[in-house]
Amino acid sequence: MKLRRNLLALAILSAASSPAFADIEFDVIGGSEISFEGLLQADGYKYNSDFLNLGVTSGASLGDGRDTDFAMRRAELVFKGKGPGMWNWVLGYDARADKFLDANISYRFSGFTTLKVGQFKQPNSLEELSSTKNNDFIAKAMTTNLQGVARRVGVSLGTGSDNWSITGSAFTRELTRNLGEGNGFGARATWAPILDKGSILHLGLSVVDYDARDPGSAVGTTPVFNGEGRARFRVRPDADLTGTRLVDSGQFTDADKIRTFGGESFWVGGPVKVQAEAMRTNVSRKLHSDYSFDSYYVSGVWNLTGETWTYKDGVPVTSLPDEPASGMWQLGLRYDHVDLNDGSFTAPSTVTGVLGGKESNWTFGVNWYLRSNFKLAMDYVKVSSEKYNTTSKSFVKDDPSILELRAQLNW
Question: Which pLDDT score is estimated for 39?
Fold first, then answer.
């Protein structure tokens, strides 16, 4: 516990003492301008658990007990190459999660038409596609974490203009083994009918469709099974370090296809941004009735120091502080909801379909961006959940709260 706190303090002090700097430019090799970027995030949580324990007490992400967790959340290292000509490439790795990030090459045919091959974020979630270093809250919404496909290996083609875009992709598994699986496709279309300085209205639709599959059993373990037809839907309560999920569909072994439709929007009016997403997922099953669930979030952010947002590639871009020495202050409020129930319960013990539970969270956040490379964030999350309990044969409420802190350094 003491060592983890010392490491967290060291990360904060190191970031605070670092001067502002941009991405590091190395050299021009073979006509490619090579640069180096990084993102370090250190998190600390204080739990007020209710029914289930949120503290991590076992496994690789060992916490220090029932009430707190301290850990590095991300340690991302990214090399980028611009050129030669219209070619670009990127190779990223997260040392904390031990996985590859974006790892692809792309060719831009014109100002807006781009072909991309390799691993990249799939076109189905506004929050997932936005820059992680500028997320409005410490944890992404349950919608994003539950139904966003994120990075997969594949090929995509996108085109558009300043205020609209269309992107299609075909993808397979994630580059790092034992993570995302399933072949499929995705598409996203966006339109910004209002696009002026400090005034933006964005609308978007997306769809992903892919095979139900997980990595299967690890080598040397029993029982031995492959991942074909396996799917499970569960999500953390807006707290990335906890291993506890309050809602969970359970493991499916007869799933066939997973299809998710998404709608997204955001509005910027000067120093205020309001953002919302909703997704609905249908899972076709071979031996049981199909399973469907949905989720959504609505959030608002107010830049107290007056900065606004810009717009690029169909996502909002957070501005740097107008006054680097004093920084940019933000207040944020988010409500997100997920419903994993697709069935019914008849007393005393008859369950039809799937009762994965419902969860609704309120998150209040404060962000401080100092200069161009440092960020401090604090969130308070109030959780309200209810799930069918097979032991008590009743619905059990679990309403914890979480205080979250983050220190971030990026370049």
Answer: 96
Those residues whose C-beta lies under 8 Å from the C-beta of residue 9, and which sit 6 or more positions away, are: none
- Domain 39-73+112-410 coded CATH 2.40.160.10: yes
Using CA atoms, how far apart are residues 17 and 407, in angstroms rounded to an integer? Answer: 13
Identify the pLDDT of residue 339. Answer: 98
Task: State what percent of residues in the chain have pLDDT above 70.
Answer: 91
Whole-number Å distance between alpha carbons of 8 and 376: 13
Give Cα separations from 136 to 15, 51, 61, 317 (angstroms).
20, 29, 24, 11
Tokens 């279309």, residue?
Answer: 189
Instruction: Give this prediction's pTM.
Output: 0.90
What are the residues facing 104 on neighbouring strands? 90, 118
d(CA 8, CA 21): 22
300 touches 326 (CB < 8 A):
no
State how far Cα 305 lies from the chain centre: 27
3-state SS string over the chain?
CHHHHHHHHHHHHHHHHCCCCCCEEEEEECCEEEEEEEEEEEEEEEEECCCCCCCCCCCCCCCCCCCEEEEEEEEEEEEEEECCCCEEEEEEEECCCCEEEEEEEEEECCCCCEEEEEEEECCCCHHHHCCHHHCCCCCCCHHHHHHCCCEEEEEEEEEECCCEEEEEEEECCCCCCCCCCCCEEEEEEEEEEEEECCEEEEEEEEEEEEECECCCCCCCCCCCCCCECCECCEECCCCCCCCCCCEECCCECCEEEEEEEEEEEEEEECCEEEEEEEEEEEEEECCCCCEEEEEEEEEEEEECCCCCEEEECCEEEECCCCCCCCCEEEEEEEEEEEEEEEEEEECCCEEEEEEEEEEEEEEEEEEEEECCCEEEEEEEEEEEEEEEECCCCEEEEECCEEEEEEEEEEC
**Distance in angstroms between the alpha carbons of the first and the last residue of the chain:** 29
What does the pLDDT read at residue 375?
A: 97
Positions in the chain whose pLDDT score sits under 50: 1-19, 59-64
Domain boundary assignment for the chain: 39-73+112-410
d(CA 45, CA 380): 10
